[in-house]
Amino acid sequence: AAIMTGQSPARLAITNHLPDQERFQPDNATLRSAETVNHLALDYVTIAERLKEAGYANAFIGKWHLSGKREEMSTTEPARRPEWQGFDLNVGGCCYGGPPSYFEPYRNPAIKAGKKGEYLTERLSDEAINFIREHRDRPFFIALWNYTVHWPMQAPRDLIDKYKTRPGLKDHRYAAMIEAMDTQISRVLVSLDALKLTDDTLVIFTSDNGAFGGVTDLHPLRGCKGYLYEGGIRVPLIVRWPGQVKPGSTCATPVISTDFYPTILDVAGL
Fold it and tell me: Among 110, 178, 228, 240, which is most exposed with the fewest C-beta within 10 angstroms?
């Protein structure tokens, strides 16, 4: 929500995990959070809506998790999904915090059926590449928010087998999912190269939170996802922007989620 609007989660009244299932925020909990809404209100102007006004084609591909609860979802009603927030294309974006399955059938109303057994992370990259090809001659914005890595721990069998015997791993499926994600992101970058769009495209890679606890080692950071220690909130940030960001350079300036909105609009000249 902070990335989409450039505003503090407290202002948006989204200060906790959005409950796509009732069990995440039971009414009889001993310690209650501040009152929150279960969706991103439509009156907030998203980055996609601003870019759309400037002639950009916008695609949301992947995890949205800003649109209420499962029982409010319908296959025919967008229900506060990305289509209502400035995006021309939505693939996978609904209330789900994690996918029911990483393999087709996905059981996600925002993804059209694909080939049986196809892998979700690959499918999302396919959709991004297709969108790039279709809009190569105009400005475009793609929010490719992979579900990977998130429960359930599922990956292609060959990658799982590759990491099964790797020493020191707490969960070989987690490692397999990371490689699958890396491979698919690479395909998107290669497509930009092939279409000669690299020099005109700003690519940002980051994460919404730290790694899940118990499956990997975040040393020297303390904590993990769900904690306010650095292990929960300090994440990678990689930028590819030829002619503006020197390859291999580093920057020590702290960045938070609300920085992306004004920065991207500034890059777009808005």
Answer: 228
